[in-house]
Amino acid sequence: MRLLQLYFITLLSCMTFSANSMKSKNINACMQQCVNDVINKPIYIKELEIEREELQKELISRALYYLPYDNEKKEQTLFLLYAYNHEYEKMFPMITKNRDFLNLVTNKNYSVFGIATITPQNIPFSEQKNFIQKLYMLGRKPTREDKQLALLEKWERVLNKRLLWHCAYKDPSNIIATLPFEIMLFISQNMFDVEESLL
Description:
The chain is mainly α. The chain has one domain (2-194). Helices cover 70% and strands 0% of the residues. The chain has nine helices and no strands. The protein has helices at 2-21, 26-38, 43-66, 72-84, 88-97, 112-117, 125-137, 144-170, 181-194. Helix 8 (144-170) packs antiparallel against helix 9. The two termini are 24 Å apart.
């Protein structure tokens, strides 16, 4: 409980720091400098990055091959692309017409849940979470592979926060810099455990 209190109090300071620092030209240099201190990318994360890239390629391939044609594969492809872009209002009529769309999976058993985790980065986390909750309400559950992609998304999201956290610690004008190094490192290493997952 004490860790959670420290995390949220200090994370608030970190967010204040990041908002102010984004106006500075030094933020990118700071982030780059912190990368070596923070990143220790596990092998399974590297493997999931490859899986995500292959899934994105499959979606592109489906779009190029099936969309020009008026057939069943075209509708299936559109449905998956709507999931990728979180266009629920376009998906719902298709589900109403044919609930089999909810059972669609890609070549490697990724469903609309997994696709929703690799959505374009300009969609905020809260919107991603809300979209996924709507999918749950339709009675569909994510596959094991979907949950692996959600793990990758969470790892990358936490990594960005850790980088900002370390940058804040190196800034003498930030309150985080007054923390003992051991506490700063402890909180940094435990951010993943208290961060919310998409699935």
